[in-house]
Amino acid sequence: MRRKTFDTLLTAGGLVLTIVLIVAGALLMWGYSFANSNVHSQLAEQQITFPSASALAHPNGTEITASMQKYLGQYAGKQLTTGPEAEAYADHFIAVHLSEMPYGGVYAKVSAASQAQPNNAALKAEVQTVFQGTTLRGLLLEAYAFSEFATIALVAGIASFILAAVMAVLTGLGFWHVRRVAPTEEVLAGHLGIPTPTPVS
């Protein structure tokens, strides 16, 4: 095969790969923007606010516990609108209160106990409370998961654009090299002992 043809094919392949990386980067950035904006809007609609700084600084042991300051302190008094905030609230506020309830706040256990004692009004109320808390915690953690997907898409999108830039430079060098290759030069001709034809003047 002629060296010029071989180099042209490789360079064209580089150009195609560059275009693919640019398209992939654009789609990933769109995915990041879509997921991130939806997580923000969905969480903002819930209007959940973190305990105030003074409440976290002076835990009363019931609504606010000492362990919460470490995880919620940085969000004190702020409205919950991001994935990491949702994760912190779900795992270090709701989960703490659920764990302090009868049966550890596990819905299946509380529900089973209530079914075993159908006339126990306190257990029936407990079932509703645990169900609501578990549901809200699950929704917040789902929002956190989608925010992590958004972050992964952002990183992948940036990486795609960087690789596309590298491939664009290499492709440009490839086209520059193709113009310098002799039309009669063969691929690996020198390595195989095949003399390169001398152009007829």
Structural class: mainly alpha
Shape: elongated
Query: How many β-strand runs?
Result: 0
| Average residue-wise pLDDT | 87
User: What number of structural domains do the residues give?
Assistant: 1
Helix content: over 70%
Notes on the protein architecture:
This protein has 201 residues and is mainly alpha-helical. It has one domain. Helix content is 70%, strand content 0%. Helix 1 runs antiparallel to helix 6, helix 4 (83-99) runs antiparallel to helix 6 and helix 5 packs antiparallel against helix 6. The radius of gyration is 31 Å and the shape is elongated.
Set out the fold topology:
Elements: H1 3-46, H2 53-57, H3 68-72, H4 83-99, H5 107-116, H6 121-180
Give the structure's gist in a few sentences.
The chain is an all-alpha fold. It has 6 helices and no strands.
Keywords:
single chain, 201 residues, mainly alpha, elongated
